[in-house]
Amino acid sequence: MQEIHFDEKVEMILLKDPRYARDAYAFVRESLDFTQKTISKENRGKVRHITGQELLDGIRQFALNQFGPMAITVLEDWGVRNSRDFGEIVFNMVEIELLAKTEKDNRDDFNHGYDFTDAFLKPFWPPSKLKAEPKPVVP
């Protein structure tokens, strides 16, 4: 029996859930590879399961490397507007067996990852704009 190709499985996902562009799925897969390589280097070559929070951080780093200040624009064009959307993409891929999960993994792991402005725009703001931001008032 021939294994179904990645693109074919993504097509199956898109028929069920058209919220995200095809490229968003390829990007998440590439981000996972990037994150695994990064964590493997940090752990002296040992490969292990990646948590949702680790994947979100890897997605952020990979997006900034790939798209620079256009990252948020690209992601929004694909229908991805917050970290919860990454969780939806990941679990769509899990459900069709493109990715694996442990018993501890769930969609909620992605709910409060990061604010897209902080993650994808602020790294490119000039220092003067960062200094001008009002500081939160602590009661």
Descriptive account of the structure:
- The protein has 139 residues and is mainly α.
- The protein has one domain.
- It is 58% helix and 0% strand.
- It is built from seven helices and no strands.
- It has helices at residues 6-16, 22-42, 52-67, 71-77, 83-95, 116-121, 127-132.
- The protein is globular, with a radius of gyration of 17 Å.
Give the proportion of residues in helices.
55-70%
Work out the radius of gyration: 17 Å
Number of DSSP strand runs: 0
- Shape label: globular
Q: What distance lies between the first and last C-alpha atoms, to the nearest angstrom?
A: 64 Å
Low-confidence stretches: none
Structural class: mainly alpha
- Major pleated sheet: none
Estimate what percentage of residues fall within beta strands: under 5%
The overall number of domains is 1
In terms of quaternary structure, the protein is: single chain
Rounded mean pLDDT is 90
The tally of helices reads 7
Order of helices and strands: HHHHHHH
Please render the helix and strand layout as text:
Blueprint: H1 6-16, H2 22-42, H3 52-67, H4 71-77, H5 83-95, H6 116-121, H7 127-132
What's this, in brief?
This protein has 139 residues and is an all-alpha fold. The protein has helices spanning 6-16, 22-42, 52-67, 71-77, 83-95, 116-121, 127-132. 58% of the residues lie in helices and 0% in strands.
Features:
single chain; 139 residues; globular; mainly alpha
